Amino acid sequence: MLLWFAGTLLVQRWVELMIAQKNAAWMFQQGGYERGREHYKYIVILHGFFFVSLIAEGGRSSPPTWWFFPAVAFTLAQILRYWSISSLGRFWNTRIIILPDAPVVVRGPYRFLRHPNYLVVIIELLAIPLIFGAYGTAVIVSLINLFLLRIRVQTEEKALAEATDYGIVMNDVPRLIPAGESD
């Protein structure tokens, strides 16, 4: 079951990367530019390591009796993931691509959180290993992810504030991940 689950996730990620590439091409055609390239590669490496570690550790362990709870968390995170992606539309990406003077998206989950998609990633990287009893993967990957997301959120918010009215529009919306002052 673990291999089927991991394979399904990999297909999901591949489809999302295709969407992201299409959106990136459109944003670059509109005058967009990229920020955070220097840390993006570490996020990609972490996600690759996640799958290897999940399969290696999860393949040797048994799911806990309470696997249902992280499975529900994962399922709810998927709903939030696709709500976030559909709310951002062409602005959704796995990279930080800024389109100067573009309207700041404040629909969907972005009415409630500045970074709902990052909440999804936090939940997934913790819940998926817990479903399969891969506790080391859950802890190690989640801690590294939180470190990288702190850098990413700071970079993204700074870039958006410089090129749009993000700082004003999102000032009262919870960030979700404390990233220090960026306003």
Automatic annotation (TrEMBL):
Organism listed in the record: Heliobacterium mobile
GO-annotated biological processes: methylation
Bilayer disposition of the protein: Multi-pass membrane protein
Spans through the membrane: 40-59, 66-85, 118-148
PANTHER family: BLL3993 PROTEIN
Keyword Transmembrane appears in the UniProt entry: yes
Domain of life the protein comes from: Bacteria
GO cellular component term of the entry, any: membrane
Keywords: Membrane, Methyltransferase, Transferase, Transmembrane, Transmembrane helix
Localization, UniProt: Membrane
Main location: membrane
Protein name: Isoprenylcysteine carboxyl methyltransferase
InterPro entries: ICMT_MeTrfase, Metal_cation-efflux_comp
GO MF: protein C-terminal S-isoprenylcysteine carboxyl O-methyltransferase activity
